[in-house]
Amino acid sequence: MYALVESGSITKYFNHPKGFTLGDLQYSADIFTKWTASELAAIGIYEVTFDDSNKKDEQWYINTNQTFTYNASAGTVTAAYGTATAKAHADTLWTQADSDNGDLPSDKSVGDLKDRGLKYNLIQTIKQQAAGILQDTDWYIVRKADAGTAVPSSITTHRAAVRTKAAEMETAITNASNIPALETLYTYTKQEDGSTTRPLGELPTLES
Fold it and tell me: Which residues make Cβ contacts (< 8 Å) with residue 84, sequence separation at least 6?
């Protein structure tokens, strides 16, 4: 990506090489590949440097739009993010302040649910994953109900382990006090044996 700087201000961006007119002169697209950085700078064209140091994982944070800045002394154009905002980790409720400001919907009362937080969504995902794993062995339960055939102990143990682990994971998510704490639960780290694990753990799978 390139930027055109005129009179100290960025006036145009080029997402890919293309011809353009500058003043009374026309330039072909190949100047972006054939000209040196100095030659391009001489007519005000600078390759954009992207600074992602402030960019954070969008699963947990809301990033700002990029700001493009021309540095005349350095002869550079930089695209950088501002400070990211953590997503709401807990549910929010309608407050008296919302009511006083006229923001409270007519069908809501102070204390009613306003927005779901990220923890709720993560817990719903755990519930769905656990249900999906249990579904694979539901037929044992149906067979017992229909025909009276006993459920193998290994299946009973497995299903109990799935439910226990799911409950542990949901509790860990519920107890996370903020977004960094949630992010830590889901962050995989490499172990000495070469495996990767995360504090939240994983739901058990049935060994074949």
Answer: 54, 55, 56, 61, 62, 63, 64
| Alpha-carbon span 119 to 172, nearest angstrom | 10
Its pTM stands at 0.78
Question: Is the separation of the CB atoms in 181 and 109 below 8 Å?
Answer: no
DSSP state letter for 20:
E
User: Quick one: tokens of 151?
Assistant: 């459920």
How far apart CA 170 and CA 181 sit, in angstroms, is 14
Query: What is the enclosing helix (H) or strand (E) of 84?
Result: none
Sign of the dihedral through C-alpha 184, 185, 188, 193: positive
In this structure, are residues 19 and 26 in contact, taking their beta carbons and an 8 Å threshold?
Answer: yes
Tokens 């490499």 locate to 190
Whether the pLDDT of residue 124 is over 90: the answer is yes
Contact 61, 87 (CB under 8 A): yes
Query: Roughly what angle, to the nearest 10 degrees, separates helices 179-186 and 153-175?
Result: 150
Q: What are the tokens at 169?
A: 């994971």
- Structure-token pair, residue 12: 């145009």
Query: What pLDDT does residue 208 have?
Result: 61
Phi, psi dihedral angles at 175 (to 5 degrees): -80, -10
- Cβ 125 vs Cβ 154: under 8 Å: no
Closest CA to 37 of 26, 25, 45: 45
Asked if 17 and 29 count as a contact pair (C-beta separation under 8 A), the reply is: yes
Query: Does residue 206 surpass a pLDDT of 70?
Result: yes
